[in-house]
Amino acid sequence: MIISNYMKNEHRECDTLFASAEEAIALGEWDVAEERFLAFSNEALTHFKKEEEELFPAFEAQTGMTEGPTQVMRYEHEQVRGLLGNMAESLEAKDKDACLSLAESMMILLQQHNMKEEQMLYAMCDRVLPAELKEKTLETMKNMSL
Amino acid sequence: MLNQNGLSLDQAPPIFVVFRFFFVGALFGILSGLFVLFFQETIFNAHSTEAIILTHTLTLGVMLSFMFGALFQMLPVIAGIKLTSPDLKANLLLYPFIVGIIALLFAFKLTTVSWLFLLASVLLGGSLLGIIVILLKNLFSLENHTSTSKGTTYTLLSLGIAVLFALYLTGTLAGVTEGSAYSHIKEAHYSFGLYGWIALLIISISFQVIEMFYVTPPFPKLFLNYMPATLFILLLLASLVGIFYPSIWLLADILLALLLGSYAVLTLKRFTQRKRPLTDATVWFWRLGLSSLLLSMLSLLLTLFIDYDPIKALSYIAFSSFGLSIVFAMFYKIVPFLTWFHLNSQGYISPPMMHQIIHPKMMMKHLYIHTATIVTFIFAIFIPQLIFLAGLLTILSFGWAGYQVVNAHLLYRKTQKTGKKFNMGSMY
Ligand SMILES: [Fe+2]
Ligand SMILES: [Fe+2]
What we know:
heterodimer; A: 146 residues; mainly alpha; Four Helix Bundle (Hemerythrin (Met), subunit A); 5 helices; 0% strand; B: 428 residues; Cytochrome C Oxidase, Chain A; 79% helix; globular; binds fe (ii) ion
């Protein structure tokens, strides 16, 4: 379960960063909000990169499923990236209502996405990938940055 | 060809399926408000025909419609179940189900017309057992089970059992079966319906959505793994042993109250540990629902030892408040998100945002109306005149929910007609 554990942990860290950014937005502390939002998007985007460049290709190569679950996950990453862009714009414009509204959509989207990964994809990765490959993938992911 | 839109939308049911179930639920809610106006305080006597009619309007018409709407939406996410032709399946459930409920309500009222009971049995039994079998088949073939998918399996089994017992009861009322075990089966029927289906479904779904929507610590593992099975086995044992020793229900009710009460406390505590500090109306709907569950279980415990009708009435009202409050909490997350999500996935450049679909202030207003409804019902136990106000508030509350569904639907249609789209075709 080394893949599941590591990736789940990253999801939780994203949640914490997101929650603190959202709180600052609600309070209208725009400078703090921007800083925290940046920390959150960095964390989320790095996590996506780890999946798209390491974990998903390893899974696809092992199972031969290139248009299955990983494709759905990639598409959902795109949706989240789009929302991150919109959120950044509304932060810039200091539009609280729009920003909180986008935050809400993004949170549900991201949670729904994470849930599918944790319950299906990561579990499958831990099952189908050979132990050695798993450790190699994990090591590479740990050293990645944006 | 790779169709990016289809990929993600594949996993979500057509939005109209969910809207339709929610709208029907709201209409039955308005009907139950009308029944309150007509039946008045007779509804507080659990054995009256009026109470039975109102209970079934609420449990079947309102709760089941909302819960199946939510299930159709959530099963792909929480359990990875992809129903084939969900639209058709939903309609095959929904329409016989609506006619079945109406037949059942008339049958209760005109006790002598036995064919109405048979008609209701065929329509409700057929549609519900059909969808239960389909969903269970999907659930049983899952490779990776989660606490929620396991809990949902028990909850659907419970609903199936509640329906089978109901068929025995309607069969007796129609004069088909002799009904020697009528009162025992009746107790088993509503126990499975209220605790095994309604409470356990809310519990199983909450295992995931509380953590997901409000970013709380997860539930204790022990609770996640054993609570649904324990509740189900308890109901099963009580139903079996109860044939020979009816007094077993006393023990079963005590254990049930402790189990559900501890769930309420445990979940209320999670809401104090949220990492997302923002408090929207749905958080208050959850809190109200969980506190109501606690109150309902405490009054249930009291009724076992004290024979005082107002406490019984309080227990019913609080349990209804539990179910309805949490239905509304889910409703206000699902409707705006789904509307936005479907439009966004279809490639509209600026789909309406969640707050534009249902504004948080509209949710807060509904929270006040709903809370006022529950409080008025409780006071009406002692001040009968208040029952009219409670009925009117019920109508207002469900009218409010129905309006939100219609409004989201119109906004969805409008965006589809006039919204600008990214040209997805040119990307490939
Ligand atoms: Fe992902
Ligand atoms: Fe992920």
